[in-house]
Amino acid sequence: MRVKLAALYFSILMGAIVCSAQTAPQATPPPTGQADYSSVYCSGFLSDPKVPDEIRIISGEESTFTIVFGPGDNVYINRGEDKGVKVGDRYAIVRPETDAANEWFYGQTKLFKEMGTHYRDLGQVRVVNVQPKVSVAEVVFSCDQMQRGDIMRPFEERPAPPYKDAAKFDHFAPVSGKPVGTVVSAFDYHQLLGRGDAAYVNIGAAKGVKVGDYIRVFRYQEMKKDVNASAGEPGYQYKVFGFGSAPTRYTAKDLPREVLGEGIVLNVSRNAATVLITYSMKSMYAGDFAEIE
User: Fold this and answer.
1) Which listed CATH number (2.80.10, 1.10.4010, 2.40.10, 3.40.50) goes with 47-154?
2) Angle 174-176-180 (CA atoms, 0-180°, nearest 5)?
Protein backbone atom coordinates (compact mmCIF):
# COMPACT_ATOMS: atom_id res chain seq x y z
CA MET A 1 0.00 0.00 0.00
CA ARG A 2 2.79 2.41 0.92
CA VAL A 3 4.52 1.65 -2.36
CA LYS A 4 1.35 2.52 -4.28
CA LEU A 5 0.88 5.77 -2.36
CA ALA A 6 4.50 6.72 -2.96
CA ALA A 7 4.14 6.01 -6.66
CA LEU A 8 0.96 8.11 -6.81
CA TYR A 9 2.64 11.02 -5.00
CA PHE A 10 5.64 10.84 -7.33
CA SER A 11 3.35 10.79 -10.37
CA ILE A 12 1.45 13.88 -9.17
CA LEU A 13 4.70 15.68 -8.35
CA MET A 14 6.21 14.96 -11.76
CA GLY A 15 3.01 16.00 -13.48
CA ALA A 16 3.05 19.32 -11.65
CA ILE A 17 6.69 19.86 -12.63
CA VAL A 18 5.91 19.12 -16.27
CA CYS A 19 2.89 21.45 -16.26
CA SER A 20 4.97 24.15 -14.62
CA ALA A 21 7.65 23.75 -17.28
CA GLN A 22 5.04 23.94 -20.02
CA THR A 23 3.35 27.09 -18.69
CA ALA A 24 6.35 29.07 -17.46
CA PRO A 25 6.45 32.44 -19.23
CA GLN A 26 9.31 32.84 -21.66
CA ALA A 27 10.66 35.78 -23.58
CA THR A 28 9.55 35.56 -27.20
CA PRO A 29 11.35 37.22 -30.09
CA PRO A 30 9.54 40.06 -31.86
CA PRO A 31 7.94 39.16 -35.19
CA THR A 32 9.33 40.41 -38.48
CA GLY A 33 7.62 42.19 -41.36
CA GLN A 34 4.50 44.14 -40.46
CA ALA A 35 1.29 43.83 -38.49
CA ASP A 36 -1.04 41.28 -40.12
CA TYR A 37 -4.52 42.06 -41.41
CA SER A 38 -6.40 40.52 -38.48
CA SER A 39 -4.33 42.41 -35.91
CA VAL A 40 -4.91 45.70 -37.72
CA TYR A 41 -8.65 45.28 -38.27
CA CYS A 42 -9.73 43.15 -35.30
CA SER A 43 -7.98 44.58 -32.23
CA GLY A 44 -10.65 47.08 -31.22
CA PHE A 45 -10.27 50.76 -30.40
CA LEU A 46 -11.49 53.60 -28.22
CA SER A 47 -13.04 56.75 -29.61
CA ASP A 48 -13.97 60.15 -28.20
CA PRO A 49 -16.40 61.34 -29.51
CA LYS A 50 -18.56 58.28 -30.07
CA VAL A 51 -18.72 56.68 -33.50
CA PRO A 52 -21.81 57.83 -35.50
CA ASP A 53 -24.44 55.12 -35.18
CA GLU A 54 -27.13 56.00 -37.72
CA ILE A 55 -26.29 53.05 -40.01
CA ARG A 56 -27.10 49.65 -38.49
CA ILE A 57 -27.57 45.99 -39.26
CA ILE A 58 -31.31 45.45 -38.88
CA SER A 59 -31.67 41.78 -39.82
CA GLY A 60 -30.49 39.15 -42.28
CA GLU A 61 -31.47 36.11 -44.31
CA GLU A 62 -33.15 33.22 -42.47
CA SER A 63 -33.84 35.60 -39.61
CA THR A 64 -36.51 33.34 -38.10
CA PHE A 65 -33.79 31.20 -36.58
CA THR A 66 -30.51 33.03 -37.25
CA ILE A 67 -29.23 34.86 -34.17
CA VAL A 68 -25.78 35.94 -35.34
CA PHE A 69 -24.15 36.43 -38.73
CA GLY A 70 -20.73 35.40 -40.03
CA PRO A 71 -18.66 34.96 -43.21
CA GLY A 72 -20.77 34.54 -46.34
CA ASP A 73 -24.04 35.55 -44.66
CA ASN A 74 -26.22 38.28 -46.11
CA VAL A 75 -27.35 41.00 -43.70
CA TYR A 76 -29.90 43.78 -44.17
CA ILE A 77 -28.96 47.39 -43.46
CA ASN A 78 -31.18 50.41 -42.86
CA ARG A 79 -29.95 52.38 -45.85
CA GLY A 80 -30.92 52.14 -49.51
CA GLU A 81 -31.19 54.14 -52.70
CA ASP A 82 -32.77 56.99 -50.76
CA LYS A 83 -29.48 57.46 -48.87
CA GLY A 84 -27.15 56.99 -51.85
CA VAL A 85 -26.02 53.43 -51.09
CA LYS A 86 -24.46 51.65 -54.09
CA VAL A 87 -23.56 48.05 -54.90
CA GLY A 88 -19.94 47.49 -53.94
CA ASP A 89 -19.97 49.90 -50.99
CA ARG A 90 -17.98 48.50 -48.08
CA TYR A 91 -18.64 48.99 -44.38
CA ALA A 92 -16.80 48.15 -41.18
CA ILE A 93 -18.96 46.73 -38.39
CA VAL A 94 -18.33 47.71 -34.75
CA ARG A 95 -20.10 47.37 -31.41
CA PRO A 96 -19.68 49.47 -28.25
CA GLU A 97 -18.71 47.40 -25.22
CA THR A 98 -18.22 47.76 -21.50
CA ASP A 99 -16.54 45.46 -18.99
CA ALA A 100 -18.96 44.22 -16.34
CA ALA A 101 -16.22 42.48 -14.34
CA ASN A 102 -14.61 43.87 -11.22
CA GLU A 103 -11.69 46.25 -11.46
CA TRP A 104 -8.21 44.77 -11.61
CA PHE A 105 -6.72 47.92 -10.12
CA TYR A 106 -8.34 50.82 -8.33
CA GLY A 107 -9.50 53.51 -10.70
CA GLN A 108 -9.35 51.28 -13.78
CA THR A 109 -13.00 51.86 -14.73
CA LYS A 110 -12.65 55.63 -14.39
CA LEU A 111 -9.48 55.71 -16.53
CA PHE A 112 -11.13 53.56 -19.20
CA LYS A 113 -14.13 55.89 -19.44
CA GLU A 114 -11.85 58.91 -19.75
CA MET A 115 -10.25 57.32 -22.82
CA GLY A 116 -13.55 57.26 -24.71
CA THR A 117 -16.04 54.61 -25.80
CA HIS A 118 -14.61 51.15 -26.37
CA TYR A 119 -15.60 49.49 -29.66
CA ARG A 120 -15.12 45.87 -30.69
CA ASP A 121 -14.20 45.32 -34.34
CA LEU A 122 -16.56 42.73 -35.81
CA GLY A 123 -15.58 42.64 -39.49
CA GLN A 124 -16.57 44.03 -42.86
CA VAL A 125 -19.48 43.74 -45.29
CA ARG A 126 -19.92 44.60 -48.97
CA VAL A 127 -23.24 45.76 -50.45
CA VAL A 128 -24.57 43.29 -53.06
CA ASN A 129 -28.11 44.58 -53.57
CA VAL A 130 -29.73 48.00 -53.12
CA GLN A 131 -33.45 48.61 -52.66
CA PRO A 132 -35.38 51.85 -52.06
CA LYS A 133 -35.14 51.89 -48.25
CA VAL A 134 -32.82 49.00 -47.33
CA SER A 135 -29.82 47.17 -48.77
CA VAL A 136 -28.31 43.70 -48.61
CA ALA A 137 -24.64 43.25 -47.74
CA GLU A 138 -22.47 40.15 -47.64
CA VAL A 139 -20.12 39.51 -44.72
CA VAL A 140 -16.72 39.41 -46.46
CA PHE A 141 -14.42 39.54 -43.43
CA SER A 142 -15.17 38.51 -39.88
CA CYS A 143 -13.43 39.18 -36.57
CA ASP A 144 -16.41 38.10 -34.48
CA GLN A 145 -20.09 37.34 -34.81
CA MET A 146 -22.35 40.17 -35.95
CA GLN A 147 -25.87 40.74 -34.70
CA ARG A 148 -28.89 43.00 -35.10
CA GLY A 149 -28.21 46.58 -34.06
CA ASP A 150 -24.46 46.52 -34.73
CA ILE A 151 -23.07 49.81 -36.02
CA MET A 152 -21.85 50.21 -39.60
CA ARG A 153 -19.29 52.82 -40.64
CA PRO A 154 -17.95 53.45 -44.14
CA PHE A 155 -14.85 51.30 -44.50
CA GLU A 156 -11.50 53.08 -44.20
CA GLU A 157 -8.15 51.49 -44.83
CA ARG A 158 -5.97 51.19 -41.74
CA PRO A 159 -2.19 51.29 -42.12
CA ALA A 160 -0.25 48.11 -41.29
CA PRO A 161 2.88 49.56 -39.65
CA PRO A 162 6.21 47.77 -40.10
CA TYR A 163 7.91 46.16 -37.12
CA LYS A 164 11.27 47.53 -36.06
CA ASP A 165 14.46 45.49 -35.95
CA ALA A 166 14.07 42.81 -33.28
CA ALA A 167 17.59 43.40 -32.03
CA LYS A 168 16.71 46.91 -30.87
CA PHE A 169 14.77 45.81 -27.78
CA ASP A 170 16.58 47.14 -24.71
CA HIS A 171 15.82 45.41 -21.41
CA PHE A 172 17.53 48.26 -19.54
CA ALA A 173 16.21 51.13 -21.68
CA PRO A 174 16.56 54.53 -20.02
CA VAL A 175 13.56 56.78 -19.51
CA SER A 176 12.61 58.22 -22.90
CA GLY A 177 11.41 61.54 -21.54
CA LYS A 178 8.26 61.22 -23.64
CA PRO A 179 4.68 60.97 -22.32
CA VAL A 180 3.92 58.10 -19.94
CA GLY A 181 0.54 56.48 -19.48
CA THR A 182 -0.97 53.27 -18.20
CA VAL A 183 -1.96 49.94 -19.71
CA VAL A 184 -5.60 50.42 -18.73
CA SER A 185 -7.18 47.38 -20.35
CA ALA A 186 -6.87 45.00 -23.28
CA PHE A 187 -8.77 43.11 -25.96
CA ASP A 188 -11.47 40.93 -24.36
CA TYR A 189 -10.60 42.72 -21.09
CA HIS A 190 -7.63 40.50 -20.39
CA GLN A 191 -5.60 41.63 -17.39
CA LEU A 192 -2.56 39.44 -18.14
CA LEU A 193 -0.79 40.35 -21.38
CA GLY A 194 1.91 38.89 -23.60
CA ARG A 195 3.06 38.86 -27.19
CA GLY A 196 0.23 39.03 -29.69
CA ASP A 197 -2.23 40.69 -27.29
CA ALA A 198 -3.79 44.08 -27.99
CA ALA A 199 -3.48 46.54 -25.11
CA TYR A 200 -5.33 49.82 -24.62
CA VAL A 201 -3.21 52.64 -23.17
CA ASN A 202 -4.36 56.09 -22.09
CA ILE A 203 -1.98 58.16 -24.18
CA GLY A 204 -3.14 59.11 -27.66
CA ALA A 205 -2.99 61.73 -30.37
CA ALA A 206 -3.26 64.54 -27.82
CA LYS A 207 0.13 63.40 -26.46
CA GLY A 208 1.67 62.99 -29.90
CA VAL A 209 1.12 59.24 -30.37
CA LYS A 210 0.95 58.06 -34.01
CA VAL A 211 0.24 54.76 -35.74
CA GLY A 212 3.55 52.91 -36.03
CA ASP A 213 5.03 54.35 -32.83
CA TYR A 214 6.47 51.92 -30.31
CA ILE A 215 5.28 51.84 -26.70
CA ARG A 216 7.51 50.47 -23.93
CA VAL A 217 5.80 48.72 -21.00
CA PHE A 218 7.50 48.84 -17.60
CA ARG A 219 6.97 48.81 -13.83
CA TYR A 220 8.80 49.89 -10.71
CA GLN A 221 9.99 47.59 -7.91
CA GLU A 222 7.33 48.66 -5.47
CA MET A 223 3.88 47.55 -4.43
CA LYS A 224 1.36 49.77 -6.18
CA LYS A 225 -1.27 51.13 -3.84
CA ASP A 226 -3.91 50.99 -6.55
CA VAL A 227 -3.56 47.32 -7.49
CA ASN A 228 -6.08 44.94 -5.90
CA ALA A 229 -4.06 41.75 -6.23
CA SER A 230 -0.68 42.98 -5.00
CA ALA A 231 1.38 40.54 -3.00
CA GLY A 232 3.99 41.27 -0.35
CA GLU A 233 4.33 44.11 2.11
CA PRO A 234 5.13 47.81 1.72
CA GLY A 235 8.84 48.32 1.14
CA TYR A 236 9.46 44.80 -0.14
CA GLN A 237 11.79 46.23 -2.78
CA TYR A 238 14.47 46.55 -0.08
CA LYS A 239 13.23 44.36 2.80
CA VAL A 240 11.31 41.11 3.25
CA PHE A 241 10.58 39.96 6.76
CA GLY A 242 12.67 36.90 7.57
CA PHE A 243 14.66 37.14 4.34
CA GLY A 244 16.92 40.11 4.88
CA SER A 245 16.86 43.85 4.36
CA ALA A 246 19.10 46.54 2.91
CA PRO A 247 20.72 48.90 5.44
CA THR A 248 19.15 51.89 3.68
CA ARG A 249 15.58 52.51 2.62
CA TYR A 250 15.07 52.52 -1.17
CA THR A 251 11.99 53.88 -2.89
CA ALA A 252 10.81 52.45 -6.20
CA LYS A 253 12.46 55.16 -8.26
CA ASP A 254 15.78 54.68 -6.46
CA LEU A 255 16.03 51.29 -8.18
CA PRO A 256 16.19 50.37 -11.89
CA ARG A 257 12.76 50.04 -13.42
CA GLU A 258 11.77 46.72 -14.94
CA VAL A 259 11.19 46.90 -18.69
CA LEU A 260 8.68 44.14 -19.51
CA GLY A 261 8.23 44.40 -23.26
CA GLU A 262 7.01 46.64 -26.02
CA GLY A 263 4.37 46.99 -28.68
CA ILE A 264 3.49 48.85 -31.85
CA VAL A 265 0.61 51.34 -32.11
CA LEU A 266 -2.13 50.15 -34.47
CA ASN A 267 -4.86 52.68 -33.80
CA VAL A 268 -4.97 56.12 -32.20
CA SER A 269 -7.71 58.41 -30.94
CA ARG A 270 -7.46 61.60 -28.92
CA ASN A 271 -6.86 59.99 -25.51
CA ALA A 272 -6.14 56.36 -26.31
CA ALA A 273 -4.07 53.99 -28.42
CA THR A 274 -4.43 50.35 -29.36
CA VAL A 275 -1.04 48.69 -28.99
CA LEU A 276 -0.13 45.24 -30.33
CA ILE A 277 2.38 43.65 -27.96
CA THR A 278 5.29 42.51 -30.15
CA TYR A 279 7.81 41.55 -27.46
CA SER A 280 7.02 40.04 -24.10
CA MET A 281 10.05 39.49 -21.88
CA LYS A 282 7.89 39.04 -18.79
CA SER A 283 4.20 38.99 -18.01
CA MET A 284 2.50 42.37 -18.23
CA TYR A 285 -0.63 43.38 -16.38
CA ALA A 286 -3.27 46.07 -16.59
CA GLY A 287 -1.93 48.83 -14.38
CA ASP A 288 1.65 48.66 -15.68
CA PHE A 289 3.16 51.82 -17.14
CA ALA A 290 3.51 52.61 -20.85
CA GLU A 291 5.77 55.24 -22.41
CA ILE A 292 6.40 56.37 -25.96
CA GLU A 293 9.82 55.13 -27.08
Assistant:
1) 2.40.10
2) 115
